[in-house]
Amino acid sequence: MAGDNRSPVTVIGLGLMGTALAGALLSAGHPTTVWNRTPEKADDLVERGARRAASVAEAVAASPLTIVCVSTYEVTHELLDPLGEALAGRVVVNLVSGTPGDARRSAEWAAKLGVPYLDGAIMAVPQLIGTPQGLLFYGGPQELYDAHASVLQVFGGQTTYLGEDFGAPLVYDLALLTMLYGAGYGWVHAQALINSAGIPASAFQPFAQAWTQHVILPGVGDLDHGRAIDQRDYATEVSNINTNRLALSHVIGASEEAGIPVDALTPLRGHLDALVAEGHGLDGFARVWEKLRPAAD
What we know:
By secondary structure, the chain is of the alpha/beta class. Helices cover 50% and strands 10% of the residues. It is built from 12 helices and 8 strands. The chain has an 8-stranded mixed sheet with strand order 3-2-1-4-5-6-7-8, sandwiched between helices. Strand 5 (91-94), helix 5 and strand 6 (117-122) form a beta-alpha-beta unit. Helix 10 packs antiparallel against helix 11 (266-277). The radius of gyration is 24 Å and the shape is elongated. The two termini are 44 Å apart. The mean pLDDT is 94.
């Protein structure tokens, strides 16, 4: 029965993440079939009770629900397209990195074949799979998600259904990664400035940690900032665009003096300059979103 806590599940792709997914299913008591291009990667899982399929077709046929965890959507289709009508009626949950467009196109492909389909995004490292902290997003038909939720929730206690849009999980995924890479780049740029003055990174790090905890995290995590964008109300009593524009100009100036590239910072300076010129200097930083949002919004 779909959603039964011990229903059979197939996992295709046994990289670090696929192996973690299959391991979580085994730990939860699901009869688990696995397949990977390199069969030896299944050895440990087989020792734990998994069944090794000899082909993708055999793997899909073994279970009503197949989890795909390979490197790209192109690889997903390389593996599944040859099965054609044999996929009809088999539920496929695609946990692959890509773009929202990739997910929506794959959903169209599945619909043409009569394949019940969910798309998802894993926001966790393999070690968090199967733990209360594991976060996974899913998008697709509500009734299909509900039918298999008890299985999908095995992968993480923070499993979240985002609605009917197949692309929504990857929108969330890539938005969160945008924050990660933005913060990561900011940190290494800061380290470059510190290094330019001959200061050890270890001496600076306690201040970076405190600044992150008490200034950056409360800022980006403040729910009022989300409401400000939704309502387009950018009034602030904390730090306005005039202040941030001046501070950024000093960051850029000091970086240029030290020979540190500022290519990643100059677009933001342009947005702040434009907002000040438009008379928005007293608004909060969230108004920068107005320079990034789609023109048709």
